[in-house]
Write a structure and sequence with these properties.
single chain; 260 residues; alpha+beta; Jelly Rolls; Arc Repressor Mutant, subunit A; 9 strands
Length: 260
């Protein structure tokens, strides 16, 4: 399905923040359902599709199909239900089930941010949420087309690198050690990672760390140094510098926006 053909209608949207566990280990839904992970990881099973999902991943379940799931750590995610405006063929539907990976996590994080901020289901908010959902699907479709010329070996190796960075993002992480473990030089790792995901490993790492920092600024009273320690930054000063460069405002200003 070419990206221009992706057309979906949002039925419902709920945001869950740091959910420790699912109420049911398996459930079914009457329409297509999307779990869009913002923070944390969980394991899933949808028919023959199974694996782990975290930030940057969508997990999509078709109607009336069992969705098995279990949290691996507190999970923040968007739960969206939708219908296709143009029903996909069986082959196309198969390509839209299970886990889908988004490379442009900066744009994805922006969509997640606005989905959280939009209040209720008034007409204007609903239209904006619909736009966010459509944009998320177009990201998947566009990226699929752009990576058609990548080899399976490159995809597989860089997926391994991406998972390693995700799993170790909030502690001490050496890109040189990662490159060596993959049989690459640091320069080769950077080039191949950028080709696969349109950003360098360091840029991807900072996105993950800043996403967690934003959540802690929004929902905790921790000091900046404490937040830095939980997000993998050396100290609060360095976190503040990176945050301000990326977000266009100091952490203190960002935090004040979430204080009533």
């Amino acid at each position: 399905m070419a990206f221009r053909d992706v057309a979906v209608k949002l039925i419902s949207h709920v945001y869950w923040h740091r959910k420790d566990e699912f109420m049911y280990n398996e459930d079914t839904y009457p329409c297509w359902t999307l779990f869009a992970v913002e923070e944390g990881r969980f394991v899933y099973g949808i028919g023959e599709h199974k694996g782990e999902a975290g930030f940057g991943d969508f997990v999509i379940c078709p109607p009336h199909v069992g969705f098995r799931r279990r949290t691996l750590e507190p999970l923040s995610f968007h739960f969206l239900q939708f219908v296709w405006l143009s029903e996909p063929s069986s082959e196309e539907a198969t390509s839209w089930r299970g886990k889908l990976v988004i490379k442009d996590i900066e744009r994805l994080a922006s969509n997640y941010h606005y989905l959280k901020e939009l209040p209720g289901w008034d007409e204007e908010s609903t239209l904006h949420k619909q736009h966010m959902l459509s944009d998320m699907f177009r990201l998947v479709a566009i990226e699929r087309e752009l990576r058609e010329d990548l080899t399976t070996e490159t995809d597989s190796l860089m997926e391994k690198a991406r998972k390693y960075v995700t799993d170790h993002a909030y502690g001490s992480l050496s890109m040189s050690d990662l490159a060596e473990s993959l049989g690459l030089t640091p320069v080769q790792l950077t080039r191949r990672f950028r080709r696969a995901f349109s950003q360098t490993p360091s840029e991807f790492l900072n996105e993950l760390r800043l996403t967690r920092a934003r959540h802690l600024l929004e929902g905790s009273t921790l000091t900046l140094d404490a937040i830095a320690g939980k997000c993998g930054f050396e100290n609060g000063f360095y976190l503040s510098r990176v945050f301000t460069q990326k977000m266009g405002m100091a952490p203190s200003v960002y935090r004040s926006m979430y204080r009533v």
